Amino acid sequence: MAEIISIPRQVLHQEVATRLRQRLVEGLIAPGAKLNERELSELLQVSRTPLREAIKMLAAEGLVELLPNRGAVASSLSEQDVADTFEVIAGLEGQAGELAAQRITDAERAEIRALHYEMLAAFTRRDLSTYYRLNSQIHTLINAAARNRVLTQTWRTVNARLQALRFRSNFDDAKWQRAVQEHGQMVELLAARDAEGLRRLLVRHLEHKRDAVLEQMRAGTVHGEASA
User: Fold this and answer.
1) DSSP SS3 for 71
2) CATH of domain 79-219
3) CATH code of the domain occupying 9-74
4) How far apart, in whole angstroms, are the C-alpha atoms of residue 131 and residue 124?
């Protein structure tokens, strides 16, 4: 008889969180929308227990809000929230880039360069889902290379609030192409160990993201918050 392998509870709710996070980031669940547990349980083919644990994880990350008498809803940000949060993340990424350029190892640089080439291939296919996953890995590795645990943890907390908006900032093809070019410059600045240059580039990169998101919000093509 085939051996029955059970999935540990912790692993299961982490897997559910990963799949639910992707739906939130890619806008399949709109900002401000209620998370319907019955529908999500059927969609993800899990019971409500791991689903609820996953929702709590995402609430801790800032992707979900737990509201009295309403349950869980996808987080939403006002234009001012977006501007304020991007201002903070730009400073954090700039500092991380500056430190990373000084402290990164050859192996870490090689990994980031390899991911960059994979990301370019995804961009060529206009595969935004894969592109964003690789893009996030690159930013995470730059932060890790800074060798500052407090900085990295703070960045993760703030960045979690912006994942969906950073994903959607690439809906404009010209702005997406500019982001790709900026990533190519990041790779070269890391190779040159240009700490100040990388700091300036990352701040500018995040400011461009901010401007793209705010432009889309004002045009009504991307929503940080639910419509009334």
Assistant:
1) strand
2) 1.20.120.530
3) 1.10.10.10
4) 10
